[in-house]
Amino acid sequence: MFQAVAYVSRGLFRSYAGLSVRMNSTGIDQKGVLANRVAVVTGATDGIGFAIARRLARDGAHVVVSSRKQHNVDRAVAALQGEGLSVTGTVCHVGKAEDRERLVATVLEHYGGLDFLVCNAAVNPLVRSTLQASEEVWDKILDVNVKSPALLLSQLLPHMENRGMGAVILVSSIAAYIPHVELGPYNVSKTALLGLTRTLSLELAPKGIRVNCLVPGIIKTNFSKVLHMNEVFWNNFKEKYRLQRLGQPEDCAGLVSFLCSPDACYINGENIVVAGFSPQL
Ligand SMILES: NC(=O)c1ccc[n+]([C@@H]2O[C@H](COP(=O)([O-])OP(=O)(O)OC[C@H]3O[C@@H](n4cnc5c(N)ncnc54)[C@H](OP(=O)(O)O)[C@@H]3O)[C@@H](O)[C@H]2O)c1
């Protein structure tokens, strides 16, 4: 086995050197900055999740994609394998405990463990204000968007530890910083993820696992059609923040690969905006 990971200190913030080629138990010799690392991406069959899965695989990782619908998983796996990438997949509705267990079992069956978890899946069943949301809607949004990343991570954590470098990326939204009045509980759920990132980053630092957060702006996907296809909203937004174009899923993928890579080994607990502008000081 070609072991190219050099640890110069224990715990978080290790340094890594010469990570471009590394073989794992599959025996497939991947190349790239994430060579032979194992990544799990939720909500990975379309939009931002799909672009992230593709980028991680292009950078050398073995990637497990998942989403709620089998036909979407089959389509995504076929497309990525068709590009020669090392990808497998399974159905996982992140809000369902039995589906999360199936995802864990798939990871263990194929790779015996994992290095990176990208919690990208989210829902927004309501396009109205916070106070008009029913308890059912609140439960669904908080279950899928906020609780499921923590629950899935707790199930996968034993299989992420002691592998050298672990990274978790949560996916929040610009709505956490600039709430859209018609997306009430969704805004709140995405703000909660900023706090979850901070909390988990402290909890997992002693285990050598970093936790950071991707905060996308408005990115061209089905999910955001309600915003970017609303001419009045989009033109105002573009003008206010001096945007030159709509974001593309690929605009988010490079950051996630970087956050998983050795170059990010001293970056932990950050919420990083990919929006074409900055909503923060
Ligand atoms: N697009 C934007 O402008 C934007 C902006 C800020 C933040 N975000 C965030 O980025 C993430 C991805 O959004 P997107 O725009 O890429 O969405 P998208 O294009 O609609 O893709 C959503 C993906 O998630 C899967 N999915 C939906 N619900 C799921 C669930 N409960 N469990 C597992 N998988 C599920 C879908 O497949 P199935 O239908 O097969 O489940 C699909 O693969 C979300 O967290 C969203 O909040 C997006």
Question: Can you offer a commentary on this structure?
Answer:
This protein has 281 residues and is α/β, with parallel strands linked by helices. It has a single domain (2-220, 249-273), classed as 3-Layer(aba) Sandwich (Rossmann fold). It is built from eight helices and nine strands. α2 links the parallel β4 and β5 (87-91). α1 crosses α8, α3 runs parallel beside α4 and α4 packs parallel to α5 (184-204). The protein is globular and about 50 Å long. The termini are far apart. The structure holds NADP nicotinamide-adenine-dinucleotide phosphate (NAP). NADP nicotinamide-adenine-dinucleotide phosphate is lined by residues 42-43, 45-49, 67-69, 72, 92-95, 120-123, 144, 171, 173-174, 216, 218-219, 221-224.
Please write out the topology.
Layout: E1 21-23, E2 29-31, E3 38-41, H1 47-58, E4 62-67, H2 70-82, E5 87-91, H3 97-111, E6 116-119, H4 135-156, E7 166-171, H5 184-204, E8 209-216, H6 225-228, H7 231-240, H8 249-260, E9 271-274
Parallel strand pairs: 3-4, 3-6, 4-5, 6-7, 7-8, 8-9
Antiparallel strand pairs: 1-2
Helix pairs in contact: 1-8, 3-4, 4-5
Residues 42-43, 45-49, 67-69, 72, 92-95, 120-123, 144, 171, 173-174, 216, 218-219, 221-224 line the site of NADP nicotinamide-adenine-dinucleotide phosphate.
Family: Belongs to the short-chain dehydrogenases/reductases (SDR) family.
Domain Ketoreductase: 37-209
GO cellular component, one term: mitochondrion
